[in-house]
Specification:
The protein has about 140 residues and is of the alpha+beta class. It has a single domain, classed as Hotdog Thioesterase (Thiol Ester Dehydrase, Chain A, Roll). A hairpin with a 3-residue loop joins β3 and β4. The protein is elongated, with a radius of gyration of 16 Å.
């Protein structure tokens, strides 16, 4: 299973008056991790969009363990967890040094430019095969 690590620093605008990161920022950091993972697989979102495939979020889950604070350097660990005909799942961990601050997942659908679900294996065998390789899964 392919994983990627990204670094972000908590900016002042992402915190409340006590210097604690606002909870919704974790979802943005999930997106940073997901985008960088896909880029590391040489499958940036742009490649999907060129093929008229989009990846809207169907589900999101985040469990908060400890707060991130202003100026913390965070490590976002992102894994491509599973791949199915019309969807895929990413898992995330957000850490400060080795301390786990949050974990979660997002589930995405493969849809066309009309928002209709597509079976990626049929619609774009190239993209399907690349994702299967990232999971060490045979197409």
């Amino acid at each position: 299973m392919k994983k990627d690590e990204s670094l972000v620093r908590v900016r002042y605008q992402e915190t409340d008056q006590m210097g604690v990161a606002y909870y919704a920022n974790y979802l943005i950091w999930f997106e940073v991790g997901r985008t960088e993972l896909m880029r590391s697989l040489e499958l940036p979102y742009r490649e999907f969009e060129k093929s008229d495939i989009f990846l809207p979020v169907l589900k999101v889950y985040c469990e908060y363990k400890q707060p991130a604070r202003y100026d913390d350097e965070l490590k976002i660990i992102t894994r491509l967890e599973s791949l199915h005909n019309v969807r895929l799942v990413f898992n995330y961990e957000i850490k400060r040094s080795e301390e786990l601050l949050a974990s979660g997942y997002t589930e995405h659908a493969f849809v066309n430019n009309s928002g209709r679900p597509v079976v990626l294996k049929k619609f774009s065998p190239f993209l399907w095969n690349r994702l299967c390789q990232a999971l060490d899964k045979h197409p």
